[in-house]
Amino acid sequence: MSTSLPSFGPTDGILPDHDIVAMVEAGAISHATPLDEDQVQPASLDLRLGQTAYRIKASFLPGANRTVAQRLGEIALHQMALEDGAVLETGCIYLVELNEALALPPEVSAATNPKSSTGRLDIFTRVITDGGAVFDQISAGYTGKLYLEIAPQSFPILVKPGSRLSQIRFRCGNTLLSDKELKSLDQRLGLVSGAPAQFQNGLAVSIDLKGGKDGLIGYRAKRPGGLVRVDEKAALDREAYWEPLYADATNSLIFDPAAFYILVSQEAVHVPADYAAEMVPFDPLVGEFRVHYAGFFDPGFGAPEADGVGARAVLEVRSREVPFLVEHGQMIGRLVFETMRERPTTLYGAGGVSNYQAQGLKLSKHFR
């Protein structure tokens, strides 16, 4: 393995798949076990759980000049091996050292997010670094381990070493597109269909509460929830875990703060091949709810050049503290777009291998 870090020169942007591979080969991304064949995504890298989980009494950040391992002695309640599989219960918080560690070049920073399937299972995850003062943000040049905080909300989950709940995206410099740049991009390539494009510090995303011919608008998680084995696809009956929701005459929905919802955007979204996107909250002042736990949209998502015809943004929603009424077409999130440093070797969904390309309303891959 090389001991010299790769240099990405003056070009700003999100690092594509071949740059991520270069960082792995140079040792800027290390791994306790060999990478899985499909672990590198067009603009991100899946992160895998390591060997041991700790149940902790509270979420925490280590703070400056302190490591996560140093804080664990104060906050850990129980240690459990994952080798034979372990159940992480709802209502509890766990911490797991990840299989991957970093020695980033000085010009490369990173951000993390739950994977799409993680968000759709209502699993709250955040990555923590040694010396970290914030979650999910990794400063340029960081060298050290990565840890994942895991808090299942609706369903207990069975995990093992190598389970993938989170993903990491690497960037050089200033990559964010302004609304003016987004409008120009929309005029050239088209970013949405099904509704007019609106821009407010990103591409505004609205909620569909009319549904299709069957009137289905979403799902509400049943409680108490059954066990989900996170590494098994299409193994669960949706009826045992989810209550379907249908449009009514008001085309509105009241979020129950005790419930978790899977809904869908009114717009079909397109992410062109030279860009990546991320879903972020629309505005905390317009409603007390959390939307979209899993925010990364890779280049090619819903795009014609990657066998897509537009893809709805699935919305994972929880109300905060009080019931909250939303109406059809109400703005509920926004997509911010970033430039890629180079076009990825493989686009999201190319060849039909993705779980969510050209999606509409869709639960996680675990349900049939």
In short:
This protein has 368 residues and is mainly beta. The chain is built from four helices and 25 strands.
Total helical elements: 4
Count of the domains: 2
CATH topology of the largest domain: Deoxyuridine 5'-Triphosphate Nucleotidohydrolase, Chain A
Give the H and E element order: EHEEHEEEEHEEEEEHEEEEEEEEEEEEE
State the low-pLDDT regions, or none.
Answer: none
- Main β-sheet, in a few words? 10 strands, antiparallel
**Between the first and last Cα atoms, what is the distance in angstroms?**
42 Å
Structural class: mainly beta
CATH class division of the largest domain: Mainly Beta
What is the β-strand count? 25
Global shape: globular
Percentage of residues in DSSP E strands: 35-45%
CATH H-level superfamily of the largest domain: Deoxyuridine triphosphatase (dUTPase)
- Rg over CA atoms, rounded to whole Å, is 20 Å
List keywords for this structure.
368 residues, mainly beta, Deoxyuridine 5'-Triphosphate Nucleotidohydrolase, Chain A, 2 domains, 10-stranded antiparallel sheet, 6-stranded antiparallel sheet, 4 helices, 25 strands, 9% helix
Structure description:
The chain is mainly beta and 368 residues long. It has 2 domains: 13-172, Deoxyuridine triphosphatase (dUTPase) (Deoxyuridine 5'-Triphosphate Nucleotidohydrolase, Chain A), CATH 2.70.40; 179-352, Distorted Sandwich (Deoxyuridine 5'-Triphosphate Nucleotidohydrolase, Chain A), CATH 2.70.40.10. The protein has 4 helices and 25 strands. The protein is globular, with a radius of gyration of 20 Å. The model has no long low-confidence stretch (mean pLDDT 90).
